[in-house]
Predict the structure.
Amino acid sequence: MNAIHIDRLHFKGRESQRQWVIADLDRVAWPSLREREYLFIRHLHAVKPAGQLAISLAEQVQALRHAAVSGWRDDADRQQAVYFADYAELLACLSRDLLQKKRRWYWRQWGDLFDLPIETALPSCWRQQQHLIPALIDQLAAHGQLRWFCLQLTDTLAEQLCRVVCPQWDELKQCDMSPADTRDQPQPPPRWLAPWQAALAGTDPPVGVMQLAALIAVREWQPLKRQAAEMLPVYRAVLRQLLMLASSQSYPSYHTGRAGGTGQTARIEGSSFFANQPANTIDTAIADTDIAKSVMSADKIKRSHSAKAELQSNQTEQKNPVSAAEAVLDLKAQTVSGFVADRTITVSPPTIRPDAVSAGDWTYPSRLSTQQGGVFYLLNFLNLPRVQDALLSEPVTRDFPSAWGWLWRLAVAMEWQPEPGVENLFAFFCGYDQPEQLRQLPAMPQMQDLLQWGRQRYGAALFNRDIFAVPAQIETDACHVDAFYALDSVNLDVRRVGLDIDPGWLPWLGKVVKFHYGASPLV
Protein backbone atom coordinates (compact mmCIF):
# COMPACT_ATOMS: atom_id res chain seq x y z
CA MET A 1 0.00 0.00 0.00
CA ASN A 2 1.37 3.39 -0.95
CA ALA A 3 2.11 5.96 1.73
CA ILE A 4 2.75 9.68 1.52
CA HIS A 5 4.98 11.73 3.73
CA ILE A 6 4.60 15.52 3.56
CA ASP A 7 7.44 17.37 5.19
CA ARG A 8 5.91 20.86 5.27
CA LEU A 9 2.53 22.27 4.26
CA HIS A 10 2.12 26.04 3.83
CA PHE A 11 -1.50 27.26 3.56
CA LYS A 12 -2.86 30.75 3.11
CA GLY A 13 -6.49 31.03 4.23
CA ARG A 14 -8.84 30.60 7.21
CA GLU A 15 -8.21 27.92 9.81
CA SER A 16 -11.45 26.11 8.93
CA GLN A 17 -10.33 25.94 5.32
CA ARG A 18 -6.90 24.65 6.34
CA GLN A 19 -8.52 21.73 8.18
CA TRP A 20 -10.64 21.09 5.10
CA VAL A 21 -7.54 20.91 2.89
CA ILE A 22 -5.76 18.56 5.31
CA ALA A 23 -8.76 16.22 5.28
CA ASP A 24 -8.86 16.35 1.46
CA LEU A 25 -5.18 15.37 1.28
CA ASP A 26 -6.09 12.08 2.97
CA ARG A 27 -8.95 11.39 0.57
CA VAL A 28 -7.54 12.54 -2.75
CA ALA A 29 -6.46 9.95 -5.36
CA TRP A 30 -2.68 10.09 -5.34
CA PRO A 31 -0.75 8.22 -8.05
CA SER A 32 -0.18 4.56 -7.28
CA LEU A 33 3.41 3.36 -7.11
CA ARG A 34 4.68 -0.16 -7.00
CA GLU A 35 5.86 -1.55 -3.73
CA ARG A 36 9.41 -0.51 -2.79
CA GLU A 37 9.49 2.33 -5.36
CA TYR A 38 10.46 5.81 -4.20
CA LEU A 39 9.41 9.11 -5.71
CA PHE A 40 10.89 12.32 -4.29
CA ILE A 41 9.24 15.66 -5.10
CA ARG A 42 10.93 18.91 -4.26
CA HIS A 43 7.83 21.04 -3.83
CA LEU A 44 4.29 21.52 -5.11
CA HIS A 45 2.37 24.78 -5.41
CA ALA A 46 -1.30 25.49 -6.15
CA VAL A 47 -3.55 28.56 -6.12
CA LYS A 48 -7.09 27.22 -6.03
CA PRO A 49 -10.27 27.36 -3.95
CA ALA A 50 -9.85 25.35 -0.75
CA GLY A 51 -11.93 22.43 -2.07
CA GLN A 52 -9.73 22.06 -5.15
CA LEU A 53 -6.27 22.42 -3.64
CA ALA A 54 -5.72 18.75 -2.78
CA ILE A 55 -6.87 17.63 -6.24
CA SER A 56 -4.55 20.13 -7.90
CA LEU A 57 -1.59 18.94 -5.83
CA ALA A 58 -2.34 15.30 -6.66
CA GLU A 59 -2.50 16.12 -10.38
CA GLN A 60 0.92 17.77 -10.14
CA VAL A 61 2.31 14.66 -8.47
CA GLN A 62 0.92 12.56 -11.31
CA ALA A 63 2.70 14.75 -13.86
CA LEU A 64 5.94 14.75 -11.90
CA ARG A 65 5.84 10.99 -11.55
CA HIS A 66 6.23 10.67 -15.31
CA ALA A 67 8.76 13.50 -15.54
CA ALA A 68 10.96 12.21 -12.73
CA VAL A 69 14.64 11.53 -13.42
CA SER A 70 17.11 9.11 -11.91
CA GLY A 71 18.70 10.13 -8.65
CA TRP A 72 22.00 8.95 -10.13
CA ARG A 73 22.08 11.75 -12.65
CA ASP A 74 24.55 14.56 -12.08
CA ASP A 75 21.83 17.14 -12.69
CA ALA A 76 19.23 15.43 -10.46
CA ASP A 77 19.75 18.11 -7.82
CA ARG A 78 18.31 20.66 -10.25
CA GLN A 79 15.17 18.64 -11.05
CA GLN A 80 11.79 18.75 -9.39
CA ALA A 81 11.26 15.00 -9.09
CA VAL A 82 13.62 12.08 -8.46
CA TYR A 83 12.91 8.37 -8.66
CA PHE A 84 14.50 5.17 -7.28
CA ALA A 85 13.35 1.66 -8.17
CA ASP A 86 13.79 0.39 -4.63
CA TYR A 87 15.50 1.06 -1.32
CA ALA A 88 18.67 -0.80 -2.33
CA GLU A 89 19.13 1.52 -5.29
CA LEU A 90 18.43 4.52 -3.07
CA LEU A 91 21.05 3.43 -0.51
CA ALA A 92 23.59 2.72 -3.25
CA CYS A 93 23.18 6.22 -4.67
CA LEU A 94 23.28 7.70 -1.16
CA SER A 95 26.54 5.80 -0.51
CA ARG A 96 28.07 7.33 -3.62
CA ASP A 97 27.00 10.83 -2.64
CA LEU A 98 28.26 10.39 0.93
CA LEU A 99 31.71 9.57 -0.43
CA GLN A 100 31.50 12.62 -2.70
CA LYS A 101 29.99 14.82 0.05
CA LYS A 102 27.15 15.78 -2.28
CA ARG A 103 24.23 16.74 -0.06
CA ARG A 104 21.43 16.76 -2.65
CA TRP A 105 17.95 17.99 -1.82
CA TYR A 106 16.43 14.52 -1.81
CA TRP A 107 18.83 13.40 0.93
CA ARG A 108 17.18 15.66 3.48
CA GLN A 109 15.94 12.70 5.51
CA TRP A 110 19.54 11.46 5.73
CA GLY A 111 21.07 14.92 6.17
CA ASP A 112 22.63 14.05 9.53
CA LEU A 113 24.87 11.49 7.79
CA PHE A 114 26.54 14.27 5.80
CA ASP A 115 27.56 15.97 9.05
CA LEU A 116 29.48 12.89 10.20
CA PRO A 117 32.98 11.71 9.23
CA ILE A 118 32.75 9.30 6.31
CA GLU A 119 34.14 6.48 8.52
CA THR A 120 30.96 6.85 10.59
CA ALA A 121 28.48 8.03 7.97
CA LEU A 122 28.83 5.22 5.42
CA PRO A 123 28.64 2.35 7.95
CA SER A 124 25.57 4.04 9.47
CA CYS A 125 24.00 4.23 6.03
CA TRP A 126 24.60 0.53 5.39
CA ARG A 127 23.45 -0.46 8.87
CA GLN A 128 19.97 0.94 8.17
CA GLN A 129 19.12 -2.07 5.99
CA GLN A 130 21.85 -4.67 6.39
CA HIS A 131 19.96 -7.33 4.46
CA LEU A 132 20.01 -5.12 1.35
CA ILE A 133 23.81 -4.89 1.12
CA PRO A 134 24.19 -7.49 -1.69
CA ALA A 135 21.52 -5.66 -3.70
CA LEU A 136 23.23 -2.35 -2.91
CA ILE A 137 26.46 -3.72 -4.40
CA ASP A 138 24.52 -4.93 -7.46
CA GLN A 139 23.16 -1.41 -7.92
CA LEU A 140 26.61 0.18 -7.68
CA ALA A 141 27.87 -2.29 -10.29
CA ALA A 142 24.81 -1.80 -12.48
CA HIS A 143 25.38 1.96 -12.60
CA GLY A 144 29.11 1.61 -13.30
CA GLN A 145 30.06 2.92 -9.84
CA LEU A 146 31.45 -0.13 -8.03
CA ARG A 147 35.00 0.16 -9.38
CA TRP A 148 35.13 3.83 -8.45
CA PHE A 149 33.52 3.05 -5.07
CA CYS A 150 36.24 0.49 -4.22
CA LEU A 151 38.97 2.97 -5.13
CA GLN A 152 37.60 5.42 -2.54
CA LEU A 153 37.68 3.02 0.40
CA THR A 154 40.55 3.12 2.86
CA ASP A 155 41.42 0.09 4.97
CA THR A 156 39.87 1.78 8.00
CA LEU A 157 36.58 2.51 6.25
CA ALA A 158 36.49 -0.94 4.64
CA GLU A 159 36.97 -2.58 8.04
CA GLN A 160 34.08 -0.59 9.49
CA LEU A 161 31.91 -1.84 6.63
CA CYS A 162 33.11 -5.39 7.27
CA ARG A 163 31.69 -5.15 10.80
CA VAL A 164 28.35 -4.06 9.38
CA VAL A 165 28.25 -6.91 6.86
CA CYS A 166 29.50 -9.55 9.31
CA PRO A 167 28.92 -9.08 13.06
CA GLN A 168 31.44 -11.91 13.64
CA TRP A 169 34.13 -10.03 11.73
CA ASP A 170 36.48 -9.45 14.68
CA GLU A 171 36.34 -13.14 15.51
CA LEU A 172 36.73 -14.23 11.89
CA LYS A 173 39.77 -12.08 11.21
CA GLN A 174 41.58 -13.71 14.13
CA CYS A 175 41.15 -17.17 12.60
CA ASP A 176 44.09 -18.95 11.03
CA MET A 177 44.29 -17.64 7.46
CA SER A 178 47.37 -19.59 6.45
CA PRO A 179 47.11 -21.05 2.95
CA ALA A 180 45.24 -24.34 2.85
CA ASP A 181 44.94 -27.07 0.27
CA THR A 182 42.57 -25.56 -2.29
CA ARG A 183 41.19 -29.02 -3.08
CA ASP A 184 39.52 -28.98 0.35
CA GLN A 185 37.97 -25.57 -0.21
CA PRO A 186 34.55 -24.95 -1.76
CA GLN A 187 34.81 -23.10 -5.05
CA PRO A 188 32.59 -20.02 -5.28
CA PRO A 189 30.29 -19.90 -8.32
CA PRO A 190 31.51 -17.18 -10.71
CA ARG A 191 28.12 -15.49 -10.68
CA TRP A 192 28.57 -14.28 -7.08
CA LEU A 193 31.92 -12.76 -8.02
CA ALA A 194 30.79 -11.14 -11.30
CA PRO A 195 30.42 -7.55 -10.05
CA TRP A 196 33.69 -7.76 -8.10
CA GLN A 197 35.54 -9.13 -11.13
CA ALA A 198 34.66 -6.03 -13.09
CA ALA A 199 35.43 -3.76 -10.14
CA LEU A 200 38.75 -5.22 -9.00
CA ALA A 201 40.41 -6.58 -12.14
CA GLY A 202 43.77 -4.97 -12.79
CA THR A 203 43.77 -2.96 -9.54
CA ASP A 204 45.87 -3.04 -6.40
CA PRO A 205 43.08 -2.61 -3.84
CA PRO A 206 43.68 -2.29 -0.10
CA VAL A 207 43.39 -5.54 1.84
CA GLY A 208 40.31 -4.18 3.61
CA VAL A 209 38.48 -3.81 0.31
CA MET A 210 39.29 -7.42 -0.62
CA GLN A 211 38.03 -8.59 2.76
CA LEU A 212 34.82 -6.58 2.40
CA ALA A 213 34.18 -7.98 -1.07
CA ALA A 214 34.77 -11.52 0.18
CA LEU A 215 32.37 -11.11 3.10
CA ILE A 216 29.58 -9.78 0.89
CA ALA A 217 30.07 -12.59 -1.64
CA VAL A 218 30.02 -15.19 1.16
CA ARG A 219 26.86 -13.71 2.59
CA GLU A 220 25.09 -13.91 -0.76
CA TRP A 221 26.47 -17.33 -1.69
CA GLN A 222 26.03 -19.22 1.59
CA PRO A 223 23.82 -17.32 4.06
CA LEU A 224 23.58 -20.40 6.32
CA LYS A 225 27.23 -19.88 7.30
CA ARG A 226 26.91 -17.62 10.35
CA GLN A 227 29.58 -18.70 12.83
CA ALA A 228 33.21 -17.73 12.20
CA ALA A 229 34.39 -21.35 12.12
CA GLU A 230 31.74 -22.23 9.52
CA MET A 231 32.46 -19.16 7.42
CA LEU A 232 36.22 -19.56 7.39
CA PRO A 233 36.64 -22.16 4.58
CA VAL A 234 34.12 -20.35 2.37
CA TYR A 235 35.61 -16.95 3.15
CA ARG A 236 39.12 -18.22 2.45
CA ALA A 237 38.05 -19.65 -0.93
CA VAL A 238 36.29 -16.44 -1.97
CA LEU A 239 39.18 -14.24 -0.84
CA ARG A 240 41.67 -16.34 -2.79
CA GLN A 241 39.50 -16.12 -5.91
CA LEU A 242 39.17 -12.35 -5.54
CA LEU A 243 42.93 -11.98 -5.23
CA MET A 244 43.26 -13.86 -8.51
CA LEU A 245 40.66 -11.60 -10.12
CA ALA A 246 42.45 -8.48 -8.88
CA SER A 247 45.68 -9.69 -10.48
CA SER A 248 43.90 -10.15 -13.81
CA GLN A 249 44.15 -7.37 -16.39
CA SER A 250 40.74 -8.03 -17.98
CA TYR A 251 37.82 -5.69 -17.41
CA PRO A 252 34.57 -7.64 -17.87
CA SER A 253 31.41 -5.75 -18.74
CA TYR A 254 28.47 -5.54 -16.37
CA HIS A 255 25.26 -4.62 -18.15
CA THR A 256 21.69 -5.73 -18.80
CA GLY A 257 20.57 -8.10 -21.41
CA ARG A 258 17.29 -4.81 -18.59
CA ALA A 259 -3.09 29.32 -12.12
CA GLY A 260 -5.66 31.93 -10.90
CA GLY A 261 -8.05 31.45 -8.01
CA THR A 262 -9.56 32.96 -4.93
CA GLY A 263 -6.30 33.83 -3.24
CA GLN A 264 -6.19 30.64 -1.17
CA THR A 265 -2.92 28.83 -1.79
CA ALA A 266 -1.29 25.62 -0.70
CA ARG A 267 2.23 24.35 -1.17
CA ILE A 268 3.81 21.09 -0.14
CA GLU A 269 7.53 20.96 0.50
CA GLY A 270 9.69 18.05 1.44
CA SER A 271 7.02 15.39 1.23
CA SER A 272 7.65 11.76 0.47
CA PHE A 273 5.79 8.95 -1.27
CA PHE A 274 6.82 5.44 -0.42
CA ALA A 275 5.32 1.98 -0.46
CA ASN A 276 6.80 0.06 2.49
CA GLN A 277 9.28 2.04 4.49
CA PRO A 278 11.72 2.48 6.46
CA ALA A 279 43.31 -7.31 10.36
CA ASN A 280 46.25 -7.95 11.64
CA THR A 281 46.40 -11.76 11.47
CA ILE A 282 44.56 -11.85 8.17
CA ASP A 283 46.65 -9.07 6.67
CA THR A 284 49.88 -10.87 7.49
CA ALA A 285 48.66 -14.22 6.22
CA ILE A 286 47.25 -12.75 3.01
CA ALA A 287 50.53 -11.01 2.35
CA ASP A 288 52.27 -14.38 2.72
CA THR A 289 50.36 -16.05 -0.11
CA ASP A 290 51.93 -16.20 -3.55
CA ILE A 291 48.88 -14.64 -5.17
CA ALA A 292 48.80 -11.83 -2.64
CA LYS A 293 52.44 -11.03 -3.28
CA SER A 294 51.80 -10.66 -6.98
CA VAL A 295 48.83 -8.41 -6.31
CA MET A 296 49.94 -6.35 -3.32
CA SER A 297 53.45 -5.64 -4.60
CA ALA A 298 52.19 -3.81 -7.69
CA ASP A 299 54.06 -0.69 -8.64
CA LYS A 300 52.64 2.20 -6.58
CA ILE A 301 53.10 4.62 -9.44
CA LYS A 302 51.10 2.34 -11.70
CA ARG A 303 48.40 2.17 -9.03
CA SER A 304 48.29 5.94 -8.79
CA HIS A 305 47.91 6.29 -12.56
CA SER A 306 45.24 3.59 -12.54
CA ALA A 307 43.27 5.35 -9.81
CA LYS A 308 43.41 8.65 -11.68
CA ALA A 309 42.24 6.97 -14.85
CA GLU A 310 39.33 5.39 -12.99
CA LEU A 311 38.29 8.73 -11.53
CA GLN A 312 38.43 10.39 -14.94
CA SER A 313 36.43 7.53 -16.44
CA ASN A 314 33.84 7.83 -13.70
CA GLN A 315 33.51 11.58 -14.21
CA THR A 316 33.02 11.03 -17.94
CA GLU A 317 30.28 8.46 -17.29
CA GLN A 318 28.51 10.82 -14.91
CA LYS A 319 28.50 13.57 -17.52
CA ASN A 320 26.72 11.27 -19.95
CA PRO A 321 23.84 9.82 -17.90
CA VAL A 322 20.85 7.92 -19.19
CA SER A 323 18.41 10.42 -20.63
CA ALA A 324 15.28 11.28 -18.68
CA ALA A 325 13.13 9.89 -21.47
CA GLU A 326 14.83 6.51 -21.31
CA ALA A 327 14.60 6.46 -17.54
CA VAL A 328 10.92 7.30 -17.47
CA LEU A 329 9.81 4.95 -20.22
CA ASP A 330 11.78 1.85 -19.26
CA LEU A 331 9.90 0.94 -16.09
CA LYS A 332 9.46 -2.74 -16.92
CA ALA A 333 11.12 -4.58 -14.05
CA GLN A 334 11.08 -1.83 -11.48
CA THR A 335 9.37 -1.02 -8.22
CA VAL A 336 8.52 2.42 -6.90
CA SER A 337 8.19 3.99 -3.47
CA GLY A 338 7.77 7.67 -3.68
CA PHE A 339 9.12 10.60 -1.77
CA VAL A 340 8.08 14.22 -2.00
CA ALA A 341 10.87 16.03 -0.25
CA ASP A 342 12.24 19.52 -0.55
CA ARG A 343 13.48 18.30 -3.92
CA THR A 344 12.36 16.83 -7.25
CA ILE A 345 11.21 13.42 -8.53
CA THR A 346 13.63 11.20 -10.44
CA VAL A 347 13.33 7.97 -12.38
CA SER A 348 16.05 5.36 -12.26
CA PRO A 349 17.66 3.66 -15.25
CA PRO A 350 16.80 0.03 -15.97
CA THR A 351 17.72 -2.60 -13.41
CA ILE A 352 21.00 -4.16 -14.51
CA ARG A 353 22.19 -7.70 -14.01
CA PRO A 354 25.67 -9.09 -14.57
CA ASP A 355 26.46 -10.86 -17.79
CA ALA A 356 27.40 -14.49 -17.50
CA VAL A 357 31.05 -14.79 -16.54
CA SER A 358 31.45 -17.79 -18.80
CA ALA A 359 29.41 -19.57 -21.42
CA GLY A 360 28.30 -22.16 -18.86
CA ASP A 361 27.23 -19.57 -16.29
CA TRP A 362 23.83 -17.92 -16.05
CA THR A 363 22.43 -14.94 -14.21
CA TYR A 364 19.45 -14.26 -11.97
CA PRO A 365 16.28 -15.89 -13.32
CA SER A 366 14.68 -12.55 -12.49
CA ARG A 367 11.19 -13.32 -13.81
CA LEU A 368 9.46 -16.68 -13.92
CA SER A 369 5.88 -17.77 -14.62
CA THR A 370 4.89 -21.03 -12.98
CA GLN A 371 1.88 -23.20 -12.21
CA GLN A 372 3.60 -24.34 -8.99
CA GLY A 373 3.74 -21.10 -7.03
CA GLY A 374 2.42 -22.83 -3.90
CA VAL A 375 5.79 -24.47 -3.30
CA PHE A 376 6.93 -21.15 -1.81
CA TYR A 377 4.29 -21.55 0.94
CA LEU A 378 6.62 -24.12 2.51
CA LEU A 379 8.97 -21.28 3.46
CA ASN A 380 6.54 -20.36 6.23
CA PHE A 381 6.70 -23.93 7.51
CA LEU A 382 10.50 -23.97 7.37
CA ASN A 383 10.55 -20.69 9.31
CA LEU A 384 8.76 -22.17 12.34
CA PRO A 385 11.03 -22.08 15.44
CA ARG A 386 10.74 -25.82 15.96
CA VAL A 387 11.70 -26.53 12.36
CA GLN A 388 14.56 -24.04 12.42
CA ASP A 389 15.98 -25.60 15.58
CA ALA A 390 15.88 -29.04 13.97
CA LEU A 391 17.52 -27.87 10.76
CA LEU A 392 20.24 -25.69 12.28
CA SER A 393 21.20 -28.12 15.05
CA GLU A 394 22.01 -30.87 12.54
CA PRO A 395 25.46 -30.57 10.87
CA VAL A 396 24.22 -32.19 7.65
CA THR A 397 21.50 -29.61 6.95
CA ARG A 398 23.50 -26.74 8.41
CA ASP A 399 26.18 -27.54 5.83
CA PHE A 400 23.81 -27.22 2.86
CA PRO A 401 25.05 -24.55 0.42
CA SER A 402 21.71 -22.77 0.78
CA ALA A 403 18.35 -23.18 2.48
CA TRP A 404 16.87 -23.37 -1.00
CA GLY A 405 18.20 -26.93 -0.82
CA TRP A 406 16.03 -27.51 2.27
CA LEU A 407 12.98 -26.33 0.35
CA TRP A 408 13.82 -28.50 -2.65
CA ARG A 409 14.39 -31.62 -0.53
CA LEU A 410 11.16 -31.07 1.44
CA ALA A 411 9.04 -30.48 -1.67
CA VAL A 412 10.46 -33.58 -3.39
CA ALA A 413 9.71 -35.62 -0.26
CA MET A 414 6.10 -34.43 -0.65
CA GLU A 415 6.14 -36.00 -4.15
CA TRP A 416 6.65 -32.74 -5.99
CA GLN A 417 7.28 -33.02 -9.72
CA PRO A 418 9.09 -29.71 -10.29
CA GLU A 419 8.74 -27.56 -13.37
CA PRO A 420 12.15 -26.95 -14.99
CA GLY A 421 11.98 -23.20 -14.41
CA VAL A 422 11.33 -23.50 -10.66
CA GLU A 423 14.00 -26.17 -10.29
CA ASN A 424 16.45 -23.95 -12.16
CA LEU A 425 15.70 -21.17 -9.69
CA PHE A 426 16.42 -23.39 -6.70
CA ALA A 427 19.65 -24.66 -8.30
CA PHE A 428 20.78 -21.13 -9.09
CA PHE A 429 20.43 -19.92 -5.52
CA CYS A 430 22.23 -23.04 -4.30
CA GLY A 431 25.16 -21.96 -6.48
CA TYR A 432 24.78 -24.80 -8.98
CA ASP A 433 25.24 -24.53 -12.73
CA GLN A 434 22.77 -27.32 -13.50
CA PRO A 435 19.53 -28.31 -11.72
CA GLU A 436 20.68 -31.94 -11.76
CA GLN A 437 23.21 -30.99 -9.08
CA LEU A 438 20.34 -30.59 -6.61
CA ARG A 439 20.10 -34.38 -6.56
CA GLN A 440 23.59 -34.49 -5.06
CA LEU A 441 22.38 -32.78 -1.89
CA PRO A 442 22.63 -35.14 1.08
CA ALA A 443 19.46 -36.61 2.53
CA MET A 444 17.99 -34.60 5.38
CA PRO A 445 18.02 -36.69 8.59
CA GLN A 446 15.01 -34.74 9.92
CA MET A 447 12.80 -35.38 6.90
CA GLN A 448 10.36 -37.82 8.53
CA ASP A 449 10.00 -35.51 11.51
CA LEU A 450 9.39 -32.54 9.21
CA LEU A 451 6.68 -34.38 7.29
CA GLN A 452 5.04 -35.50 10.54
CA TRP A 453 5.14 -31.99 12.04
CA GLY A 454 3.67 -30.51 8.88
CA ARG A 455 0.76 -32.98 8.84
CA GLN A 456 0.11 -32.43 12.54
CA ARG A 457 0.08 -28.66 12.20
CA TYR A 458 -1.74 -28.25 8.89
CA GLY A 459 -3.49 -31.58 8.37
CA ALA A 460 -2.58 -34.36 5.95
CA ALA A 461 -5.28 -33.19 3.53
CA LEU A 462 -3.50 -29.85 3.18
CA PHE A 463 0.19 -30.60 3.75
CA ASN A 464 0.77 -32.40 0.47
CA ARG A 465 1.78 -31.63 -3.10
CA ASP A 466 -1.72 -30.39 -4.00
CA ILE A 467 -1.00 -27.01 -2.37
CA PHE A 468 1.81 -26.44 -4.91
CA ALA A 469 -0.63 -26.06 -7.83
CA VAL A 470 -1.07 -22.30 -7.68
CA PRO A 471 -0.30 -20.11 -10.75
CA ALA A 472 2.17 -17.38 -9.90
CA GLN A 473 4.75 -15.04 -11.32
CA ILE A 474 8.04 -14.99 -9.43
CA GLU A 475 10.48 -12.08 -9.47
CA THR A 476 13.90 -12.25 -7.83
CA ASP A 477 16.98 -10.13 -7.32
CA ALA A 478 19.99 -10.26 -5.02
CA CYS A 479 17.87 -9.79 -1.89
CA HIS A 480 14.21 -10.28 -2.80
CA VAL A 481 11.81 -12.98 -3.92
CA ASP A 482 8.36 -11.67 -4.84
CA ALA A 483 5.54 -14.11 -5.64
CA PHE A 484 2.50 -12.62 -7.38
CA TYR A 485 -0.76 -14.59 -7.19
CA ALA A 486 -4.19 -13.87 -8.67
CA LEU A 487 -6.81 -12.88 -6.12
CA ASP A 488 -8.93 -15.91 -7.01
CA SER A 489 -5.94 -18.15 -6.16
CA VAL A 490 -6.45 -17.56 -2.44
CA ASN A 491 -7.15 -20.85 -0.69
CA LEU A 492 -9.09 -20.25 2.53
CA ASP A 493 -7.74 -23.43 4.13
CA VAL A 494 -4.17 -22.30 3.38
CA ARG A 495 -5.01 -18.82 4.64
CA ARG A 496 -6.47 -20.09 7.93
CA VAL A 497 -3.30 -21.99 8.85
CA GLY A 498 -1.04 -19.09 7.83
CA LEU A 499 0.89 -20.81 5.05
CA ASP A 500 0.36 -17.91 2.64
CA ILE A 501 1.26 -15.03 4.95
CA ASP A 502 4.23 -12.82 4.01
CA PRO A 503 7.41 -14.58 5.17
CA GLY A 504 9.33 -11.27 5.09
CA TRP A 505 13.07 -11.24 5.87
CA LEU A 506 14.40 -14.79 6.24
CA PRO A 507 18.04 -14.57 7.41
CA TRP A 508 18.58 -18.30 6.93
CA LEU A 509 17.56 -17.88 3.29
CA GLY A 510 19.31 -14.55 2.76
CA LYS A 511 16.18 -13.12 1.10
CA VAL A 512 13.13 -10.98 1.73
CA VAL A 513 10.17 -13.06 0.52
CA LYS A 514 6.82 -11.40 -0.12
CA PHE A 515 3.52 -12.78 -1.37
CA HIS A 516 1.25 -10.45 -3.37
CA TYR A 517 -2.41 -11.16 -4.14
CA GLY A 518 -4.54 -9.51 -6.78
CA ALA A 519 -1.60 -7.48 -8.06
CA SER A 520 0.45 -8.18 -11.14
CA PRO A 521 4.01 -6.91 -11.65
CA LEU A 522 4.50 -4.30 -14.36
CA VAL A 523 5.50 -5.75 -17.74
Summary: The longest strand covers residues 38-47. Residues 251-263, 273-362 have pLDDT under 50 and may be disordered.
